[in-house]
From TrEMBL, chain A:
The lineage of its organism: Bacteria, Pseudomonadati, Pseudomonadota, Candidatius Mariprofundia, Mariprofundales. The keyword Transmembrane applies. The chain crosses the membrane at residues 31-50, 182-205, 226-253, 265-286, 293-313, 353-371. InterPro entries: ABC-2_transporter_component, ABC2_TM, ABC2_TM_bact-type, ABC_2_transport. Keywords: Cell membrane, Membrane, Transmembrane, Transmembrane helix, Transport. GO terms for molecular function: ABC-type transporter activity. PANTHER family: MEMBRANE COMPONENT OF ABC TRANSPORTER YHHJ-RELATED, MULTIDRUG ABC TRANSPORTER PERMEASE YBHR-RELATED. GO terms for cellular component: ATP-binding cassette (ABC) transporter complex. This is Transport permease protein. It comes from Mariprofundus ferrooxydans PV-1. It is found in: Cell inner membrane; Cell membrane. PROSITE patterns: ABC_TM2.
From TrEMBL, chain B:
The chain crosses the membrane at residues 34-52, 186-209, 235-257, 264-289, 295-315, 353-372. GO terms for molecular function: ABC-type transporter activity. This is ABC transporter, inner membrane subunit. Keywords: Cell membrane, Membrane, Transmembrane, Transmembrane helix, Transport.
TrEMBL record, chain C:
Transmembrane segments: none annotated. Keywords: ATP-binding, Nucleotide-binding. SUPFAM superfamilies: P-loop containing nucleoside triphosphate hydrolases. InterPro entries: AAA+_ATPase (IPR003593), ABC_transporter-like_ATP-bd (IPR003439), ABC_transporter-like_CS (IPR017871), P-loop_NTPase (IPR027417). GO terms for molecular function: ATP binding; ATP hydrolysis activity. It comes from Mariprofundus ferrooxydans PV-1. The keyword Lipid metabolism does not apply. This is Putative ABC transporter ATP-binding protein, consisting of 2 fused ATP-binding domains.
Length: 376, 381, 582
């Protein structure tokens, strides 16, 4: 028993060693493993943000009273907005928005000061470019909060010691509400997925294409040993790259890591298990490398979109939300954000751990079965 | 065969026809081409059209009232009956905090014990709004909605209790081109750029590399076919395929997702044709340099697909990126196409947007095609 | 317009001082070195040489796909450097793997090449009918090229190159991996075209009997032209150096061949029917042997002699006996197959075949492309489950047996499945560990393999960068590291040059002498002579079984001559009802 186990172990070690040699010896595949993840993290990390700054806006102040000038000064002082022009005629509005020169027009009507003085609500019109609805929503939100703050300050100064109810606003876990804090842990999951898929999804397909897979099957290696031999390199490389990415997130992008590393790496290990399982399953189904690549691609694109990495899963229609349940990235993104930003303890993440373990076990079993039973 | 007519620039209608027919037949019989050209676009469109939304609606929030009373009821009542929030009443802060940590609520509105009492005292009473800042985007929206509700409640309260409050400035919002702020109106047109990059660059790069790998390119080159014929023979079928992808996407956008198409459809197809030329040029260039499917697919993924997704302004706003990244986006053709698509779909034929972007695409198309023609030689070395 | 002086001199290709080098990972390689030659119009010219001699490079230079570094190539009166398109308009080139689009049908492939050659539409139906009739593809016009058998693909490739009635036809290894029947049919078509249209043909091949039949031979070795002459002129240089040695009672062919190959002055030995053929070095007297008889020389003898003979010295010296497990009785069959059937959907690839192989036997599995031998082979190795029937290898079915049973077999596939990016040493290390060899044993066996297969100097080279002959040696070394007592070899000599094939069979002979059981498939019929027994398969059934002698006798009984195994094979295949009507 022990002897046969140690023989099996020797065979697995040989296979793992061979996989690593094959992956790292070739200059091109070495590049594929090292170059893209780092480029992706840097470009993604800097490009992917929902926060806006330097939003170009134009002011159209028809009033000219002191209060309207105070309000205009609030906009001018906001770091988010850049005043690009002051306009005097209605006709000037359209070309500015059409050409995307201004994303926002702040329009103060002629009766503004008079209405306020009479105690009537005075409207300020915010015209936004809706071509990018998300940006429009955020611009509106920024502009409204400037107006609200303006109102609150007026209430405060109204002599009676302020309004009867005032707001105390706080944001937990991300006090400055930086969307980078939200996106970068997700990106770490995304890149880990891409790397492991690339390592595993082509590994069996490549051997089938080159005929070496038959050669493996006639050696004493058992399917389960081949499975382990194929899975371990993906696991080790995934662990290594994820560690580099996590380090970059913490030390380069200054994302706080509040939770314990044990929790984080438990999640990472389970996620790698499921990603490797799916990758090997695709690879065992594919006859050629091209099919393997396309299969991985067809899996990865929806997996990323449905993971909640950029857009909340709760916003998706119910049917789509059910589909996300089989997406391993969905669970890992939650684990990453919770451990990074909230410091969530281990036991609260168990609901995320077991689905990953389940997906991993099922997909690995199917992959192992396909090694021997795939007909072609 | 008249030898005098054979030169590198020559084009024979018969040979070109033969090459194009071959390419079409191969496309029809190759499941992976069909998958990239038709299945993936439809999946992407459905996902983005139905699945992805950045709007915050029906956000679950916790209402914690330490000492319920008439005043608190009127305040919390204003959080109900709004499409933005799904409020959940919780007995104390402890349970609210757990709910937030478990992700069951995104925000907590907390009214303290002395809410009813302090309401009538100078200085008033605070209302605490705590948002889960992890998703900063949602967090900010919740805060915005929350303060709007507060101002409105305050004025109602003042009116009922005859308290004099200074009049406040009211925001009147006008969203041009997309008054309901539907995400899909801007995501679906932008997606067309991604889909056409897939067909134009990724698929073309793969199929040319495949000819090298299978040795058919060698057989092809040993015939009197000219390089121009090979290039046109490859580009024309994928141009048609890309146009097909474009038609499907536009059709789905307009009829399935009700995205308005305010510009001219001919202008749309015109700029799409320009972009397709750029994408095909990139695909041919990659495969000419790589000649190997694995490497070609990796390069195509990194230099065409991911930038089209991330750096084109399709999801993330270019103007918010750091300066260096903004400069890089200028060499991403999808950037110009996304701007054109969003304008043509939602705003209309605005020439001041169309001219510069279309010109940029035309210049890029020219550069890529000249490069491809320069690099492609009818040689094996 | 073609140069009139060349037309007058009858040259179709003129090479003067042609050199061409390539940059590879291991530094520059001189593929062709100062080659001068004139290829004559209207003739069939063979480019013959071992792997890496520069045959494919020469073809590509002639067709204008590559340019020479120095020197000039003139094809059909055009300088390929100046006017490559003119050259390509009047010649046709069939690269290795035939250059077919596998996802197009037979007809669509023909249409494509007709368009590319600008064949007028008016003449097409007639030309198509002619080509289809010639190649026998008429019934398969609507079938995808990828679903054709190897032989049919090769004929379609030929039809596509002939569609424009070229003046010059270049064929790069047109018969590699193709069975003898298809091979013969291909050459019949080519020779008929040459005599009918005066077309010139240049081809390269690893089959020396094909070289024997052509009009002129260019013998290349390591980028240099060793000689240009008619095959008969090459053979005549060998006059008086070739002998037949008939067998002695009670001595096996293999043992006799082995002994003869060790005699001084002997540069080549081959088994031919019931005799051993000997080739002596120049100016060497015939060995002092009984039953020796002079025999006329062949082109093959000249080829081997000019290249210095197969290097079999290392194979013999320092031979370490292969360890054989002696638990089972020697008389019991090692491999037994009965009623073996395999269905793919409705198609029956193997139709209930029976045979058995004894210990220490070299057993051949022969057949045309698509006869079902690969399917049988894969089932025996446990790579494919059988639909019906029984099969045992060393007493077990490898598909269900514990993994330790698989350590008794060695396997070598036709593509020499090695890890291309790994070095020779890394490949050997991996396979020895995969077979569970311990550290010490592993080192010992790798040392043995390096010596035995002369892999020492390429030990650090990536397997992909090895010449084909070395790849084959490495593949075999990897299959033998764990000292298996059963060896499965699937077309182990496909595409390998005659020198490497000779070395290979020397090794197999020695293994068989030591009691290793060998199951081998091959397309080279002369190799069937090395087998103790063989079966010929066709259409999934066994057509004939027995010793090579039995098979030849069986074929001779039909009334046709069957001097060689190839003749016998073709006769037996044609005996089938399907061929009888054709």
């Amino acid at each position: 028993m022990i002897a046969s186990l140690s023989a099996a172990w020797r065979r697995i070690v040989a296979l793992v060693g061979k996989e690593f040699l094959a992956l790292l010896k070739d200059k091109k595949s070495r590049f594929v493993l090292i170059g893209p993840p780092i480029i992706q993290l840097l470009v993604f990390g800097y490009a992917a943000t929902f926060d806006l700054n330097h939003v170009p806006y134009a002011l159209y102040n028809e009033d000219g009273g002191a209060v309207s000038r105070q309000l205009a000064a609030r906009f001018a002082g906001a770091p988010v907005f850049d005043l690009i022009s002051t306009i005097r005629r209605d006709a000037d509005i359209r070309p500015l928005i059409d050409d995307r020169q201004a994303r926002l027009i702040v329009h103060i009507s002629p009766q503004f000061s008079r209405d306020l003085a009479l105690g009537k609500p005075a409207p300020v019109q915010l015209i936004v470019d809706g071509r990018n609805s998300n940006s429009a929503l955020i611009v509106l939100n920024y502009a409204s909060s400037i107006v609200q703050q303006f109102n609150a300050d007026r209430l405060q100064r109204s002599g009676m010691g302020g309004p009867p109810v005032h707001l105390e606003v706080r944001a937990w876990f991300n006090p400055n509400l930086q969307s980078r804090w939200f996106l970068i842990p997700g990106i770490a999951g995304l890149i880990t997925l891409i790397v492991t898929m690339l390592v595993t999804a082509l590994s069996v397909a490549r051997e089938r294409e080159q005929g070496t897979f038959d050669q493996l099957l006639v050696t004493p290696l058992r399917p389960v040993e081949i499975l382990l031999g194929k899975a371990l390199p993906g696991f080790i490389i995934g662990m290594f790259e994820a560690t580099v990415i996590i380090a970059l997130a913490v030390f380069w992008f200054d994302i706080p890591l509040l939770g314990s590393l044990v929790t984080l790496y438990t999640g990472l290990a389970l996620f790698l298990l499921s990603a490797i399982g799916v990758g090997l399953m695709i690879s065992s189904l594919a006859v050629t490398q091209q099919q393997g690549f396309l299969g991985a691609f067809l899996f990865m694109v929806p997996a990323v979109i449905l993971s909640g990495f950029a857009t909340p899963i709760e916003n998706m229609p119910e049917a789509v939300q059910y589909i996300t349940l089989i997406d391993p990235l969905r669970y890992f993104v939650v684990i990453l954000r919770d451990v990074f930003l909230e410091g969530t303890p281990f036991h609260l993440l168990i609901p995320q751990f077991w689905p990953l373990a389940l997906i991993g076990t099922i997909s690995l079993s199917i992959a192992g079965w396909l090694f021997r039973h795939r007909m072609y | 065969m008249n030898a005098a007519h054979l030169n590198e620039g020559g084009i024979s209608a018969m040979r070109l026809r033969g090459l194009m027919r071959k390419e079409f037949l191969q496309i029809l019989r190759d499941p992976s081409s069909i998958a990239i050209a038709f299945v993936l676009p439809v999946i992407l469109l459905l996902l983005f059209g139905y699945g992805v939304s950045l709007d915050a609606k029906h956000v679950p929030i916790a209402l914690v009232v330490d000492e319920p009373g008439a005043a608190t009821a009127s305040f919390t009542g204003s959080f109900r009956h709004l499409p933005y929030f799904d409020p959940l009443t919780l007995p104390d802060m402890r349970s609210a905090e757990i709910a937030m940590r478990e992700g069951r609520v995104e925000a907590i509105v907390h009214l303290r014990t002395d809410f009813g009492r302090k309401l009538y005292q100078p200085g008033g009473t605070p209302v605490q709004i705590i948002v889960n800042g992890v998703n900063a985007n949602t967090g900010r929206l919740i805060l915005g909605y929350g303060s709007g509700i507060w101002i409105n409640w305050l004025h109602q309260y003042a009116q009922i209790n005859h308290i004099h409050l200074p009049a406040s400035v009211q925001v009147e919002q006008r969203v041009w081109f997309n008054s309901e702020l539907r995400s899909r109106n801007y995501l679906v047109p932008g997606l067309i750029a991604v889909i056409m990059t897939l067909i134009g660059a990724l698929l073309t790069a793969l199929v040319v590399a495949r000819e090298w790998e299978r040795g058919t390119m060698e057989a092809l080159m040993a015939t009197p076919v000219t390089m121009n014929e090979i290039i046109i023979g490859k580009m024309a079928p994928y141009f048609v395929l890309g146009s097909g992808g474009m038609l499907i996407s536009v059709g789905m956008a307009v009829w399935l997702f009700d995205v308005p198409l305010r510009g001219s459809i001919w202008l749309l197809f015109g700029v799409a044709a320009l972009f397709l030329l750029v994408a095909l040029g990139m695909g041919l260039l990659i495969s000419t340099l790589a000649r190997n499917q694995f490497v070609a697919s990796q390069i195509a993924l990194i230099v065409t697909f991911l930038p089209a997704f991330l750096l084109s302004g399709f999801i993330f706003e270019i103007s918010s990126m750091p300066q260096v990244v903004q400069i890089i986006t200028h060499i991403i053709p999808a950037r110009y196409f996304v701007a054109l698509l969003q304008t043509l779909f939602m705003a209309g034929d605005i020439w001041s947007v169309i001219w510069p972007n279309a010109l940029a695409l035309a210049v890029m198309a020219l550069i890529f095609l000249v490069l491809v023609r320069r690099i492609s030689r009818k040689r094996l070395d | 317009m073609p140069d009139s002086s060349d037309v007058a001199s009858g040259a179709v290709v003129t090479l003067s001082g042609v050199s061409r080098a390539f940059n590879t990972a291991g530094g520059p390689v001189q593929a062709l070195d100062n080659v001068d030659a004139i290829i004559t119009r209207g003739r069939v010219t063979g480019l013959i040489g071992p792997d890496g001699a520069g045959k494919t490079t020469l073809m590509r230079l002639i067709s204008g796909l590559l340019m020479p570094d120095t020197g000039s190539v003139n094809t059909l009166g055009f300088d390929v450097k100046e006017q490559p398109l003119q050259v390509q308009a009047s010649m046709c080139y069939m690269p290795q793997r035939f250059g077919l689009y596998e996802d197009l049908t037979v007809q669509e492939n023909l249409d494509l090449y007709a368009d590319l050659q600008q064949l007028p539409y008016a003449g097409r139906p007639e030309r198509y009918a002619e080509l289809m009739h010639m190649t026998g593809l008429a019934a398969f016009a609507a079938r995808l090229a990828g679903q054709l058998s190897g032989g049919m693909k090769q004929k379609l490739g030929l039809a596509c190159t002939l569609v424009g009635s070229p003046k010059l036809l270049l064929l790069d290894e047109p018969t590699a991996g193709v069975d003898p029947v298809s091979r013969r049919e291909l050459w019949e078509i080519v020779y008929r075209q040459v005599s009918k249209t005066g077309m010139s043909v240049v081809f390269s091949t690893a089959y020396l009997d094909e070289a024997e039949r052509c009009d002129e031979v260019l013998l290349l070795h390591q980028g240099r032209l060793l000689g240009q002459d008619t095959p008969a002129a090459f053979s005549s240089r060998m006059q008086g150096r070739t002998w037949h040695r008939s067998l002695d009672e009670g001595v096996s062919k293999r043992a006799l061949q082995h002994r003869l190959s060790q005699l001084p002055g002997v540069i080549d030995t081959t088994i031919q029917g019931e005799q051993i053929r000997l080739v002596m070095a120049a100016d060497t007297a015939a060995p002092d042997e009984a039953n020796l008889q002079a025999t006329p020389p062949r082109f093959e003898d000249a080829f081997i002699a000019m290249l210095g003979g197969a290097d079999t010295a290392a194979i013999v010296s320092d031979q370490q006996p292969v360890h054989i497990r002696t638990t089972d009785n020697d008389q019991l069959p090692v491999i037994e197959v009965s009623g073996l059937t395999r269905n793919f959907g409705t198609f029956q690839a193997v139709k209930g075949i029976d045979f058995s192989i004894r210990r220490g036997e070299v057993f051949g599995l022969l057949g045309a492309n698509g006869a079902g031998k690969s399917t049988t082979f894969r089932m025996l190795c446990g790579l494919l489950p059988a639909s019906h029937g029984e099969l045992t290898v060393a007493g077990v079915n490898l598909r269900e047996a514990p993994s330790s049973a698989r350590s008794r077999i060695g396997y070598m596939s036709q593509r020499f499945s090695l890890y291309g990016s790994l070095s020779v040493l890394e490949n050997m290390r991996f396979f020895s560990s995969a077979y569970g060899l311990g550290r010490q044993q592993r080192k010992m066996r790798i040392d043995w393999a390096c010596k035995q297969f002369e892999l020492g100097e390429v030990i650090a080279t990536a397997a992909n960068d090895l010449p084909l002959g070395y790849k084959q040696r490495l593949a075999m070394a990897c299959a033998l590291l764990h000292e298996p007592d059963i060896l499965f070899l699937d077309e182990p000599t496909s595409g390998v040059d005659p020198l490497a094939r000779r070395e290979f069979w020397h090794r197999i002979n020695l293994l068989a002498e030591q009691g290793v059981t060998v199951l081998v498939t091959t397309h080279f019929m002369e190799e069937a002579e090395y087998c103790d027994r063989l079966v010929i398969m066709a259409e999934g059934t066994i057509l004939a079984a027995g010793t090579p002698h039995d098979i030849r006798m069986e074929a001779a009984a039909t009334g046709r001559p069957a001097d060689t195994m190839e003749d016998a094979f073709i006769t037996l295949i044609h005996r089938q009802p399907e061929f009888a009507t054709a």
